[in-house]
Amino acid sequence: MTRIHGGKQKVMTAQLKRRSLIFGAGLLLYLCALGVSSQVELSDAVRFVWFLIAYLIIGFDSFRGLRDRFMKKQFLTEYTLMILATVGAFGIERYEEGVLVMILFELGLIFEAFSTDTAKRSIAEMIDIRPPYATRKVKGKEQQVDPSELKRNHIIIIKPGERIPVDAVITSGATTIDTKAVTGEPVPVSAGVGDRIYSGCINLRGVIEARVSKVYKDSTVSKIMEMVEDAQNKKAESETTISKFARIYTPVMLVLALLVMIYPPLTFSYGNWSTWIYRGLIFLIVACPSGLVMSIPIAFLGGIASAARQGIVVKGGNYLEDIARADTFIFDKTGTLTKGVFKVKEIHPEGMTEEELLEIAAHVESYSNHPIAQSLTEAYGTKGKKLDKQKVYRMKEIPGFGITATYAGQRVYIGNWRMMRKQNIEVQEVKKAGTVVYVAVDRKYAGYILIADEVKEDAKGTLQYLKEKCRGVLVMLTGDSEAAGREVAEDLEMDYVYTNLLPKDKLEQVEDFLLLEDATEKVVCVGDGINDAPVLTRADVGIAMGDLGSAAAIEAADVILMEDELWKITDVIRIAKETLRVVNQNITFALVIKAMVLILAVIGYFGMWEAILAEVGVMFAVILNAVGVVKYTV
Which of 332, 453, 540, 558 is catalytic? Predict the structure, then answer.
């Protein structure tokens, strides 16, 4: 089995260890040089060579970083400033300080790499939950195989305590499954024959057999890990902005440092070249934007890790930034705001009781697999009664109209209003939100049953949060009828509702909202990730929820809520806002401190040692602040 993500992580950790060893060797050589030069008077040439060797070893990664930037045609970066400053220190025979500057700079880079490595490993530990083997059943015998060797329709056995290796459907046995690692849901769920189970979840109780439904590379956890890997490599807008800022900032600081070196000795401090060159070099060191540039990607990586802990996969830091600025939230109705499950809502009999009307409808519909038929039989079952299918015969479905059958010796007609008209049964059309099922017995109208979808329990609270905390405009796009759509929209106090829409109509509506936004606004679309894939793709941020097995959800959406819980949208918004708060804190703090130290350096209150300590202090502070996002909980 090839674990791409884990392999990259191991390579990264090995590189960090090698880098630390090289740094340690150079630091040891530097300390030896300091110790010997303090006890023995060395010639300037010996001191220069000794400190130069230590400098080259310690700065190995900085020189390599400068080379990589040059190959990308990025000539003025933080590496450029730091290397110019330290080489300049050697030029004015301040060897100890030049090497110390490089030591502290490299220490900051190693700390940044360690922080990034830690954050990525924390994500890997949360997401890399695939078992090392799978147990396949072949001709009644058990064989341990690599999960990547499993093919569709293979039978696997999962024992208590084992992780599910691939997505599958249970064919034998019953159990409870811990889905927390995948969905974030802390309560174990029951599963039996016919239920779908997902890779990465843990079988808690019984031995089960299951038929493989997806091969290893297409299973849920593999797809999630691919998304997280991509997310770590995508830059957020703030990250990109700081990179652009650094490209302008660096040459400006370089010019100012040259002015500090040249202008005073030519004017009011005539001939005092060594003092002002030294101060110019200090200026370069303080001006280095490394802490600023480093802290921002770590903050967004921390936001992605924090979201993963809540059962939310964010495909990139850029989506965290966009969702924090979102002010328009567009929702699909069925399966998103509602449960997508039909329930009997109202029973209106004519000439009989509610129980009698439901009994007739449930029995006649008992042979149908239609969702409406299932809702009728379920409603009858909740009253503690059992169906007697032997009372139903001569059943006939009429596509587009309904069903007719003989029940208890009476001919029953059940269907829509067109069914009643077709049978010449006088009935007034009922216009209500939902599906109206008309019932006639022996061609005499017996009443109607209203079947409707149910609004999710957490929908109202979630939408209220979006309206109050995000000042959001709430929009519903649905292919359902106007009555059904408006009822749900009014119940949830939404701002706009568009009904009777085809997928292309939904896309057009999203395009209209995108045209209305300015640079500070973003449009978020929320759907089930199957029917709404075009809309999720087109929005600034597409959020898919609930359907773990949906390839459309994985491919189209930018944020995946692994559990079918609408309120988790508020979680990802809180995480995004916290991430941006840390980013803004870091930017403000770093710029204020830099401005103060630059002024003090120019007027002579800061030497090179103090300047680099201040710069490294800023670097450590902003990186530690950014790392804190990983531990943020909602």
Answer: 332
